Write a sequence for this structure.
């Protein structure tokens, strides 16, 4: 990719204009052709994560899949992760916080209640940033979609991320209907908690915090960090100013 910011800005604009009209599989193929083997797809193994994992596995069966196990995930998420890993034969790398769950609780207590941003920084952002460094990635793909929330509505399909890596969002333009049709076509499973009203699934350190059920008519991420002015954990940055 172009080396200086002016070149990159021009190239990014050109690619985004082109990719708005391109199908998701072709965007994945572009990313793999440009950056293989230094490319990975990140996954939270959330409500509809099977879509991106299947898309990427169809293009490159052994593509690196990076996930963060914060130590506070739903048991159903762990089971779902294991199921998809077996079913899609994923080349999965699981990263964990430097401080294990019990040590974290002993030192910081219920930090998610008082400072959820700091809790996310310890348990999610640091492991993911470490993964990108250790794996020497030049590009990472993610399954965020513009329809998911207010903060994501301006998400670009390709951009130079804040740490210099190229980030690609192949299904940024997809709607919930697009997701459902793809899942149905390929007989892919949703997260087991989705049918219980959990449309965006993160941590659950205790009942009523970090992930709660979404009410009818609310956007999928409204159930995250209930009671706080926060819908993102910080892995992604948007022009709106809030990070995922």
């Amino acid at each position: 990719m172009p080396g200086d910011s002016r070149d990159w800005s021009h190239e990014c604009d050109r690619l985004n204009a082109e990719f708005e009209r391109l199908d998701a599989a072709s965007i994945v193929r572009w990313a793999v052709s440009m950056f293989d083997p230094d490319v990975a797809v990140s996954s939270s193994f959330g409500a509809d994560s099977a879509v991106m994992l299947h898309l990427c596995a169809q293009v490159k069966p052994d593509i690196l899949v990076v996930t963060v196990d914060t130590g506070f995930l739903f048991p159903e998420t762990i089971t779902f992760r294991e199921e998809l890993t077996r079913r899609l034969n994923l080349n999965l790398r699981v990263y964990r916080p430097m401080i294990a769950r019990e040590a974290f609780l002993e030192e910081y207590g219920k930090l998610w209640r008082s400072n959820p941003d700091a809790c996310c920084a310890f348990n999610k952002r640091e492991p993911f940033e470490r993964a990108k460094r250790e794996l020497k990635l030049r590009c990472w793909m993610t399954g965020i979609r513009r329809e998911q929330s207010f903060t994501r509505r301006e998400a670009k399909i390709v951009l130079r991320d804040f740490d210099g890596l190229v980030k690609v969002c192949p299904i940024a333009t997809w709607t919930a209907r697009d997701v459902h049709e793809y899942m149905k076509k390929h007989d892919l499973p949703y997260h087991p908690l989705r049918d219980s009203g959990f449309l965006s699934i993160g941590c659950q350190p205790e009942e009523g915090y970090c992930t709660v059920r979404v009410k009818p008519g609310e956007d999928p991420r409204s159930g995250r960090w209930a009671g706080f002015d926060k819908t993102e954990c910080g892995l992604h940055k948007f022009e709106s100013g809030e990070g995922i």
User: Anything to note?
Assistant: The helical segments are 5-19, 24-35, 50-59, 75-88, 101-108, 111-114, 116-134, 176-185.
